[in-house]
Design goal:
Blueprint lengths: L6 E4 L5 H13 L4 E4 L9 H9 L5 E4 L2 E2 L5 H14 L4 E6 L5 H4 L7 H16 L4 E4 L4 E5 L15 E4 L3 H10 L2 E2 L7 H17 L10 E8 L3 H18 L1 H7 L3 H10 L6 H8 L4 H6 L2 E3 L1 H13 L4 E6 L3 H7 L7
Parallel strand pairs: 1-2, 1-12, 2-3, 3-5, 4-5, 5-8, 8-9, 10-11, 10-12
Antiparallel strand pairs: 6-7
């Protein structure tokens, strides 16, 4: 079976200059998109996206994902308009509901996340459609505003909106209102089946089918000719996330007993030493349950499981040699 869609995911594991080079390499190898993370208090998504957009010509550039709490809706729309000026028809707005405890630690109370997301997507879409918008919502309140283009294109912008959903209620909302779902990583492939049901349920509310919703999925991809090295890199990453992001714990398929054991060792934020201590608790089979880790053959087989359960395009997060990973999954790769 040939899988012709594949994308790259970058967080902060590489310098920005190296990130640019990897995106150019991925573009040359036929990757369709690069998704830039914005999660912990490290890099924002926008500056790297601009760098990638300015130094490539074909690859799509997506936020994977920004959030609907920290940027005013007017600024959010202006930001994606600006990115579209830089790379017309190549920009994707991936947006999620963020997570605690990080949000609360910077003074944001994530109340009514579904309503907040619905309002954000509606107003953002209308602004990027170059409409004059009045919307008096609970979270988005705008009064007769329009994106003020004096120089440049004044026509509606083609910036698809993808929601980074993990819970099933947000997944259902995604099926109803978004152009796509950016499915999360560190989930068991069986999680995808529940996600597809929720997306379909939401799509039906809007008179659509699940086929109208793109479903790319983040996947941790740790590939190395040295299998143990590949598994250990994924084990470290997985331990860090299981300890810090409770919404992912629920979707990972990892036993509560193991999660409790990990939490005995980790504080928030976890230190490098704590993660290294806790990762000894995580066996190989658990690592491979919700990451694509190991030899090239094992990694491809795991990606195949997610695709079989509804993902439309792997968004691969390289933990080992990123160029090796890009080569393995380059244009026309056989899965």
């Amino acid at each position: 079976m040939s899988q012709d869609r594949v994308a790259l995911y970058l967080q902060d594991a590489h310098s920005l200059q190296e990130g640019i080079e990897l995106v150019q390499y991925a573009e040359a190898k036929g990757f369709e998109a690069v998704w830039q993370a914005e999660s912990r208090l490290v890099r924002d998504a926008i500056v790297p996206m601009a760098a990638f957009a300015a130094t490539t010509s074909k690859i799509k550039v997506a936020s994977g994902v920004t959030n609907n709490w920290t940027r005013n809706i007017g600024l959010l729309a202006a930001t994606f308009l600006t990115l579209d000026d830089l790379a017309p028809d190549r920009v994707i707005c991936g947006i999620g509901a963020w997570w605690d405890p990080l949000a609360s630690k910077v003074g944001i109370q994530r109340r009514k996340p579904l309503k907040a997301m619905r309002e954000t997507v509606e107003v953002l879409r209308r602004l990027l459609n170059m409409e004059t918008v009045t919307f008096h919502g609970e979270f988005c309140y705008v009064d007769g505003i329009k994106l003020d283009v004096v120089y440049g294109r004044t026509e509606p912008r083609n910036v698809p909106i993808y929601i980074g959903a993990t819970g099933m209620k947000m997944m259902e909302l995604t099926g109803e209102i978004a152009d796509g779902a950016c499915l999360n990583y560190l989930v068991h492939p069986d999680y995808n089946l529940r996600a597809m049901d929720a997306l379909e349920k939401g799509a039906k509310k809007a008179g659509r089918s699940i086929d109208d919703i793109d479903r790319p999925q983040l996947m941790i991809c740790s590939v190395d000719m040295d299998r143990k090295k590949a598994l250990d890199k994924a084990r470290f990453m997985m331990t860090q996330y299981l300890g810090q992001q409770p919404h992912l714990m629920k979707a990972s398929g990892v036993s509560q007993e193991l999660l409790d054991d990990i939490h005995q060792v980790l504080t928030w934020p976890a230190t490098d030493e704590q993660i290294r201590e806790a990762m000894t608790l995580v066996p190989d089979d658990v690592v491979q349950m919700c990451t694509a880790s190991g030899s090239p053959e094992e990694v491809k087989a795991k990606v195949r499981e997610y695709i079989a359960n509804g993902a439309t395009c792997p968004i691969l997060y390289p933990l080992g040699d990123p160029k090796l990973m890009i080569d393995i999954f380059s244009e026309g790769y056989s899965i």
